[in-house]
Design a protein that fits this description.
This protein has about 180 residues and is α/β, with parallel strands linked by helices. The protein has helices spanning about 10, 15-20, 40, 45-60, 70-75, 95-105, 130-140, 150-155, 175-180; strands spanning about 5, 80-85, 110-115, 145, 160-165.
Length: about 180
């Protein structure tokens, strides 16, 4: 049975789109996010962007809905694979992400892992500084689905099939096409 590793933010949910929609007086549209992180496009510092995103996670992450095509795919085909959620989020928000994954996908995803996205006030030890580090240590992934080209590229160097989920900031494949390919359609 193949094991699929799923990125959480912007693959299983629409964190960035939803966060952007809550930004007051922001003229930038989601389609205009040609880079991620988008702090330069927003005209703010990286620190200010991360602080705002983290505040959003702490206050509104639980209300995010799962991506509809992904949820439908899991309902129809999720039982045919093993699944792992692997996210790069701050340690402070990781419990919220884990709870969200288990609430929406816990029938299929039974393992949750985090490669912490470092923050200045996070004193935690760095065990796996990247998703590639985690995947290398774990050694059981067949497929990684992520919206970050660097994560996908790193997975491929490990011999893992890396699938780049389309977002405005990448040249990925539509999630519907990725999901159809998982079933050999």
């Amino acid at each position: 049975m193949k094991t699929i590793v799923w990125d959480v933010d912007d693959v299983l949910n629409s964190l960035t789109r939803t966060w952007l929609e809550t930004q007051p007086d922001c003229a930038l549209t989601f389609a205009g996010l040609t880079e991620n992180p988008p702090h330069r496009l927003l005209g703010i510092s990286r620190e200010a962007y991360l602080r705002s995103l983290d505040e959003f996670r702490l206050s509104r992450f639980a209300a995010l809905e799962p991506a509809v095509p992904v949820r439908r795919w899991f309902e129809a085909h999720g039982h045919q694979f093993r699944h792992v959620a692997l996210t790069a989020t701050p340690l402070e928000t990781a419990p919220l992400s884990a709870a969200w994954v288990m609430r929406h996908f816990g029938r299929w995803i039974r393992t949750f892992a985090v490669a912490p996205s470092p923050r200045p006030d996070d004193p935690g030890p760095v065990i796996d500084p990247s998703k590639a580090g985690y995947l290398r240590w774990w050694g059981r992934a067949d497929v990684l689905i992520d919206d970050n080209p660097a994560h996908v590229s790193a997975a491929r160097t490990l011999g893992i099939t890396g699938l780049l989920a389309a977002q405005p900031w990448n040249r990925g494949i539509a999630i519907e096409q990725i999901l159809a390919g998982l079933n050999g359609e």
